[in-house]
Structure formats: structure tokens, C-alpha cells
Amino acid sequence: MTGATTVGVLGGGQLGRMLALAGLPLGLRFRFLDPSPDAPMRHLATQITGAYDDRDALAKLVDSVDVLTYEFENVPVAVAEQLARTHLVFPPARALAVAQDRLVEKQFFRSLAIESPPFAAVDDRASLTAAVRQIGLPAVLKTRRLGYDGKGQVVLRSDAELDGAWQALGGAHLILEGFVPFRHELSILAVRSRDGAVATYPLVENHHRDGVLRLSLAPAPDSAHLQAQAEAIATQALNALSYVGVLAIELFEMDGRLLVNEMAPRVHNSGHWTIEGAQTSQFANHIRAIMGWPLGSTEARGCAAMVNLVGIIPPMIDVLNIQGAYLHLYDKEPRPNRKVGHVTLLRDSAEELKHAVARVQALIGEQHLTSPGDL
């Protein structure tokens, strides 16, 4: 390998920034395409500013790159398919197509006999009523495309709410999903190399507020009995898609069963703890996979937590005064509900981790974990 190897990345957000930070020590160069001139990776690598389907911008992106990837799952599928005709593009465009449509995604997992919450397509007002009769209430009405971080969805608890939800989401091309009385929200991150080798990280327990991830715990407490089940789900999906790179699958635990909520064909927020908390980070393993290099160990280095910084950056000195705390800032201006950074915490025990998490959450005004059982 020479230092001239260049990775092209569609998307230049914080995930792209962390991909670059993982790849630069390996002698790689990066070129990013992002619509925003203030993309978080702008100081680390070459940025091309333009829309993802801008022909001139795409031509500049692919000039002399060796492999292409993305850190944003809403890259137009047609663009990924076009680029794949002349360049190596990982993960494959089919993974984007599946992940971009919630109905197609649910049907994909059903085709693999992998369980998910009950669902039904909603294409007109009458089909919404029919779907509610089929699935029951409460349920969640979602847009099939472009929803993330709690956007594009409405919880339905009574028939009186149907008209308002239908109008709020614009009508047509929706999906109704049964509301799951889950015990925990979990995620499994897995990586597949070009030669088909698969490695999986420990299950992660996730805590959300207002639809935004606030806290991840790894390994997920009391989850050892679910690890094999989660690994089987991830491996099936990876192989069915001929996937290369990191894939994240969000799961609900209900009565000892894992139900698939959704997948993200990219590195994922719930895997940020791996930078310090695993032998090989999700970002380094994504790079290894798309480059055709051997995958690194996914073993955890103890108990880890990742606290998202949403809309607020705490005083740096206060964070750095916490032993075992690692502060990551994304070079983004704070504003409400915007992810501007995260803090990873490492401890030898769950009890020690709980107290460290509470200290960071106090700095950002976040609600504390309520009992030792939460960890």
C-alpha cells in the first residue's frame, strides 16, 4: 500500500469526520462530497461542496479515488448505482434501497424470517383505517422515507387521532407499525469484509428522548443471552445484501425475543463508544472492510457508555476532569436537538460507570439514570 490511496465519501457529517480520523493514521487520503460548506470534516480532508446528484461535483469526487463509501443513508440510490458501474462502492446500492424505505426494509427482514413489529402499508386514508383495524392501537404512523431522530412519525392512541396524523405526515406512502411494549432498545453493529468475513460488536443498550439518542451502554447490561440471537440477525442481513462495511441494526427486546426496528447501512451513533471502548473502532473496521483489509477485533475493553451532547457543549475542563472520559466535538454550532459531540466513558464495572454517566449528564442538564438496575 502507498500513501496515495484515496477514499471518496458521500456525506461529510460527524460520521465522515470520524471515518477520516480512523483512516488518516493508516496512510489513507479522503475526499468528501457534502451539500454544506460547513461540513464537520472540512478541516480534515478535501471537501467538494454540492448536491449528491450534482454531476460536476460527483466527477470531482471520483477523480483518482480508489474506493467509495457513504456516511449518510439518504444518498440517492441511482447515484450509488451509477458510481458502482465504474468504481468500487461499499456498502452496495441495494443496502441503501432497502434502508431508505421502511416498508421495503420490513419486507426484507420478513423475507429472511426475521421478526419485526407488525406493519402495514398506508397509501390512502381508507387504508389507514384498515391498517389500524388489522394491527390495533397504540401504533406508530411513519413516513416510509426520510424520517430519522424521531422525525416523520406520530404515535396513535385513539381513532380520533387518525385524521390529524394523516394530515401531519402529508398522506400517502406511509407505514403503520404496531407499538411494541419493549423491555429495552438495543442495537447490534456488525462488519463484513470483501471476502465475506463477519465480525460483530457486543449488543448496545440505547436510551432516547424526543426521538434522539441520548445514551448508549456497552456491552448492554444483562444481554449475554441475546448476543447470539442478535449476531444471527446481523449475519443473515449482511450475507443477504452481499454487504461490505459496518451495518447497524436497531432492535427491540420483548419477552426474550429480538424484533428488528430498522437498519442503518453505515457507521452508527450507537457505535461511537467503540473508538475508545473496543479493540477496533467501528470506523477503523469500516475502513478495513471497504479496503479489503483484515478485520480487527471487536472485543470490548470493559464497560463503556456514550453520552450524546445534544444542543449543548459542556465546559471542556469539567469533562476532562472526569477520569476515563473522552470528549469528542464535531465542529458544529450548538442549536436545539443538534448532535454537537459525545463523551465516551470507560470503567471496569457497571456501578462505577453509572456514577461517571451521572456526572456527565449533570453537566448537560440531562436526566440521570434512575436506579442501579438501569446499568
Q: What would you note in describing this structure?
A:
- The structure is a single chain.
- This protein is of the alpha+beta class and 375 residues long.
- Helix content is 30%, strand content 27%.
- The longest helix has 17 residues, at 224-240.
Features:
4-stranded parallel sheet, alpha+beta, 9-stranded antiparallel sheet, 375 residues, 12 helices, 17 strands
SSE arrangement, N to C: EHEEHEHHHEHEEHEEEEEHEEHHEHEEH
Shape: globular
Alpha-beta content class: alpha+beta
Oligomeric assembly = single chain
Q: Percent helix among the residues?
A: 25-40%
Strand content: 25-35%
Number of distinct beta strands:
17
Tally of separate helices: 12
Low-confidence stretches: 370-375
What Rg is obtained from the alpha carbons, in whole angstroms? 20 Å
Q: Distance between the terminal alpha carbons, to the nearest Å?
A: 44 Å
pLDDT averaged residue by residue: 94
The major beta sheet can be summarized as: 9 strands, antiparallel
